[in-house]
């Protein structure tokens, strides 16, 4: 393998880097704002660049500095996060912003960053490399795939992950770690695509073991999919004078702290009989079907009447937004 492939990749990145609002152009003498890098990395966990880009812009407009985010109310922050999913991220975001303000700024190395709420190994390495140019190796799924292909590590990633990560650390340059990280991420996102890698446009094809096999898409081997468990529950639709009764979910657990419709627990298994009206939502680890049951009286406990024509302001997560859509379409 020629040592030049890393330079070719960096040159390709300089000329073709994706224009993303949390980045600075490669070659710029400005460093990216650590607040922007952190916020984008948290938003991008499990969420696509296309979805994150406008939401990131809204966050930054609303809370231009990390101190603004730290002093926001948790309910407003959760409402702004609505629809992005994985709501533990939003709760950690708030706690993390407050700690960063207390520390007087973001720590500049992985160890310090990992002390903060919601920052795991990958995110710490990404912030350290991209915002501070530290000698860190952020390995996301795109980078895993690119490294597995360049190095010709064939098995499913679930079995070869530690080998792939060792290989990534061995090949990562000590200098320009942040640019290299973003170059690898861009290569994986735009050229070295999972099913149809565009090797003809790839700056490193001459040094890629997968390309040399003639079937680069076969590396890494696809994972064996397990069936997703099905759960079911009931959402209660309690409507009065153009308003619907909402509650706040308990702070811990799925959709913790989010606005919600009241309803039953979610349990495993099938319906004794199919509900008349239901919505289905697929979470990462299970699929949920929520039957919709109109009721007249709110359950005991706290809640509030939310005007239906201002339902957007409640910050309902997608699951409950689907129920609202189903109910307002029929009424
Ligand atoms: S040559 Fe093809 S398989 Fe190899 S890194 Fe480039 S796009 Fe991916």
UniProtKB/TrEMBL annotation:
<feature type="domain" description="HhH-GPD">
    <location>
        <begin position="43"/>
        <end position="190"/>
    </location>
</feature>
<keyword id="KW-0326">Glycosidase</keyword>
<keyword id="KW-0378">Hydrolase</keyword>
<dbReference type="Pfam" id="PF14815">
    <property type="entry name" value="NUDIX_4"/>
</dbReference>
<dbReference type="Pfam" id="PF00730">
    <property type="entry name" value="HhH-GPD"/>
</dbReference>
<keyword id="KW-0479">Metal-binding</keyword>
<dbReference type="InterPro" id="IPR004036">
    <property type="entry name" value="Endonuclease-III-like_CS2"/>
</dbReference>
<keyword id="KW-0234">DNA repair</keyword>
<dbReference type="InterPro" id="IPR003651">
    <property type="entry name" value="Endonuclease3_FeS-loop_motif"/>
</dbReference>
<dbReference type="InterPro" id="IPR044298">
    <property type="entry name" value="MIG/MutY"/>
</dbReference>
<comment type="function">
    <text>Adenine glycosylase active on G-A mispairs. MutY also corrects error-prone DNA synthesis past GO lesions which are due to the oxidatively damaged form of guanine: 7,8-dihydro-8-oxoguanine (8-oxo-dGTP).</text>
</comment>
<keyword id="KW-0408">Iron</keyword>
<keyword id="KW-0411">Iron-sulfur</keyword>
<dbReference type="InterPro" id="IPR029119">
    <property type="entry name" value="MutY_C"/>
</dbReference>
<keyword id="KW-0004">4Fe-4S</keyword>
<keyword id="KW-0227">DNA damage</keyword>
<dbReference type="InterPro" id="IPR003265">
    <property type="entry name" value="HhH-GPD_domain"/>
</dbReference>
<protein>
    <submittedName>
        <fullName>A/G-specific adenine glycosylase</fullName>
    </submittedName>
</protein>
